[in-house]
Write a sequence for this structure.
C-alpha cells in the first residue's frame, strides 16, 4: 500500500500544484480559495507558500533587485535598498495583495498560511543576499543604517497586512523573519560608531587647547574646540544619522562616557597645573594645562558653564533625548534624565577648581613683586634715611590682577565669577603680604632687641648710664613706617578694583602689625 499511497500523494500534489499555479496566473479567486483549502486539509501549507513565492513573487523581485552580483560589484547598481523597497511595496500592493486578502478572510480557515513571511519576505531576503550582499555590511555605517531603517520600514509595511496582534506575533516568529533580522549586525554597527564618536573626542582632547574658529563655533555657545567636539559627539549619539532605537541604552551609556571623559580630561589638567611641577609623571592628557596662560582658563570656565547649561534639565539635550524616547514609559524617561544629570555633577564640582587655578596663577605673578618687600630692611638698617612715600613694589602687587581684569577675554566670565576671582586673589595676596610683613617686622624687632642688649652691656663695662635713650627714630620704627605707607597705598589700589581692604581679615591683621599705636583702632587710608 505504501507505493500506492506515495503515487496517489504525488498525483494529488501535482494536480493541486497545476491548479493552484493556473489560479495564480489568472487571478481566479475561487480556484485559489479552493486550492488553499485543499492544501490546508492535507497539512501542506509550505508547498502553497513556496509555489506562490516562485510563481509570483520571485519574477517580480528579480526585476527590482539584480541577481548578478558581478554586475553589482562592477557598479551597475548600489547597495542601497530604499528605492528597491519602494518598488517592492508597489508589487506587493498590486500583485500579492489578492492572495493575502483571501488567506486572511474571516471564517475561511486559511489563517494557517503565512505568505508574508514564507513567500514575500523569504524571497526578498534571498534576492538581497544574492544581488546586494553589501547592504548588510556594517563596514559602511552610514549606508548600513539607511538600509536597516528602510528594512524596518518594509517590515512595518508587511505587518500592515496582518489582521490582528496575534497575526503580527505569528509573522515575527516565522524563520524567514528571524533570518532577515539576523542579517543586520547592529552590535558591530554600534562598535564602529563607538570608535568613531569616542575616538573623535579623544583625539580632540589630546591636542593643544585652542579656541575654535568662527565656522566651528557658529551656532554653539562654546569657545574651545574640545568643548565643541564634546557637544557634537553627544548630538551625534542621538542624531537620526547614527541612533538605532533598539540600542538606545548603549548610546545613552556612550553619552555618559563622553561626559565622563571630558570631565576627567579637565580634572587631570587642573590637578597637574595646581601641582605646577611639570614632572614627567603627569598624565599625557594633562600636559595641555601645564603651560597655557591664565586667559585660556577663562574659556574653560565659560565652556564648562555652557556645557552644564546645555546638559541641565532646562537645556535642549535632555529634551531632545526624551523626545526620541517618547514611546518609553515615564519611569524610563525619568531614569534617563537622572543619569544625565548625575553625569554632569562631577563637571559642576570642577568650577571651584578652575577658579582656584586662575587665582593661583595670578597670585604667583603677584608674589614676584611682593618678594621685593624684604629689601626694606636693608634700606633702613644702620642709615639715617627716613621713609616719606610708599615703596615702588606696591604698585606691582596687583598689576597682574589688573591686567587680567582689563583683558578682552574677561567679558566671557560672569559678573559673579569676576567678583569671586577678585576676592579670591586679593584675599590670598593680602594673606601672603601679611606673612612677609610679619616676618620682616619680627626679624627687625629681634635684631633691634639683640643690638640693644649688646649696647647696654658695653655701656655697663665702661660705667656709662644705661637708661639714656636716643632721640632718633630706631631702624625698626623706620621699617614699620615704610610698611605702613606701603599698606596704605596697597589699600588704595584695592579700592581701585572695587575691593574694600577693611573687609579682608588679613589686611586688618596687616594694619595691626605696622600701624602706629594711635591709629591701630581705626583703619584709614
Amino acid at each position: 500500500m505504501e507505493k500506492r499511497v506515495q503515487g496517489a500523494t504525488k498525483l494529488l500534489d501535482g494536480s493541486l500544484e497545476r491548479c493552484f499555479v493556473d489560479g495564480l496566473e489568472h487571478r481566479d479567486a475561487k480556484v485559489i480559495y479552493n486550492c488553499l483549502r485543499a492544501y490546508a486539509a492535507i497539512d501542506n501549507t509550505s508547498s502553497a507558500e513556496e509555489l506562490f513565492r516562485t510563481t509570483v513573487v520571485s519574477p517580480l523581485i528579480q526585476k527590482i533587485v539584480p541577481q548578478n552580483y558581478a554586475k553589482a560589484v562592477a557598479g551597475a547598481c548600489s547597495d542601497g535598498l530604499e528605492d528597491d523597497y519602494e518598488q517592492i511595496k508597489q508589487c506587493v500592493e498590486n500583485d500579492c495583495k489578492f492572495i493575502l486578502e483571501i488567506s486572511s478572510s474571516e471564517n475561511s480557515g486559511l489563517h494557517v498560511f503565512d505568505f508574508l513571511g514564507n513567500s514575500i519576505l523569504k524571497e526578498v531576503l534571498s534576492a538581497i543576499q544574492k544581488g546586494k550582499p553589501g547592504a548588510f555590511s556594517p563596514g559602511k555605517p552610514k549606508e548600513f543604517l539607511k538600509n536597516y531603517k528602510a528594512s524596518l520600514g518594509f517590515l512595518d509595511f508587511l505587518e500592515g497586512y496582518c489582521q490582528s496582534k496575534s497575526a503580527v506575533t505569528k509573522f515575527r516568529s516565522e524563520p524567514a523573519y528571524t533570518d532577515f533580522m539576523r542579517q543586520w549586525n547592529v552590535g558591530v554597527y554600534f562598535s564602529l560608531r563607538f570608535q568613531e564618536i569616542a575616538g573623535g573626542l579623544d583625539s580632540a582632547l589630546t591636542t593643544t587647547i585652542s579656541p575654535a574658529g568662527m565656522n566651528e563655533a557658529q551656532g554653539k555657545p562654546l569657545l574651545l574646540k574640545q568643548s565643541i567636539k564634546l557637544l557634537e559627539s553627544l548630538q551625534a549619539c542621538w542624531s537620526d544619522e547614527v541612533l538605532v532605537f533598539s540600542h538606545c541604552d548603549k548610546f545613552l551609556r556612550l553619552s555618559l562616557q563622553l561626559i565622563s571623559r571630558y570631565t576627567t580630561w579637565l580634572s587631570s589638567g587642573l590637578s597637574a597645573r595646581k601641582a605646577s611641577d611639570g614632572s614627567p609623571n603627569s598624565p599625557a592628557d594633562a600636559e595641555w594645562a601645564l603651560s597655557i596662560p591664565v586667559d585660556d582658563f577663562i574659556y574653560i570656565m565659560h565652556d564648562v558653564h555652557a556645557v552644564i547649561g546645555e546638559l541641565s534639565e532646562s537645556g535642549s539635550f535632555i529634551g531632545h533625548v526624551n523626545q526620541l524616547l517618547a514611546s518609553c514609559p515615564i519611569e524610563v524617561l525619568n531614569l534617563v534624565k537622572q543619569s544625565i544629570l548625575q553625569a554632569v555633577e562631577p563637571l559642576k564640582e570642577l568650577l571651584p577648581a578652575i577658579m582656584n587655578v586662575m587665582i593661583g596663577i595670578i597670585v604667583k605673578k603677584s608674589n614676584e613683586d611682593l618678594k621685593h618687600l624684604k629689601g626694606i630692611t636693608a634700606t633702613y638698617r644702620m642709615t639715617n634715611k627716613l621713609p616719606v612715600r610708599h615703596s615702588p613694589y606696591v604698585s606691582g602687587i596687583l598689576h597682574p590682577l589688573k591686567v587680567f581684569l582689563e583683558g578682552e577675554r574677561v567679558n566671557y566670565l560672569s559678573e559673579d565669577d569676576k567678583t569671586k576671582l577678585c576676592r579670591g586673589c586679593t584675599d590670598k595676596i593680602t594673606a601672603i603680604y601679611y606673612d612677609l610683613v610679619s616676618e620682616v617686622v619680627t626679624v627687625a624687632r629681634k635684631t633691634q632687641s639683640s643690638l640693644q642688649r649688646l649696647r647696654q652691656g658695653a655701656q655697663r663695662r665702661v660705667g656709662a648710664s644705661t637708661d639714656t635713650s636716643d632721640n632718633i627714630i630706631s631702624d625698626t620704627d623706620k621699617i614699620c613706617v615704610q610698611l605702613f605707607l606701603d599698606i596704605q597705598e596697597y589699600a588704595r589700589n584695592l579700592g581701585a578694583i572695587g575691593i574694600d581692604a577693611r573687609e579682608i581679615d588679613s589686611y586688618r591683621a596687616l594694619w595691626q602689625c605696622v600701624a602706629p599705636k594711635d591709629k591701630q583702632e581705626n583703619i584709614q587710608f
User: Anything to note?
Assistant: Residues 422 and 498 are 9 Å apart (CA to CA). The chain has 23 helices and no strands. The first helix runs from residue 2 to 26.
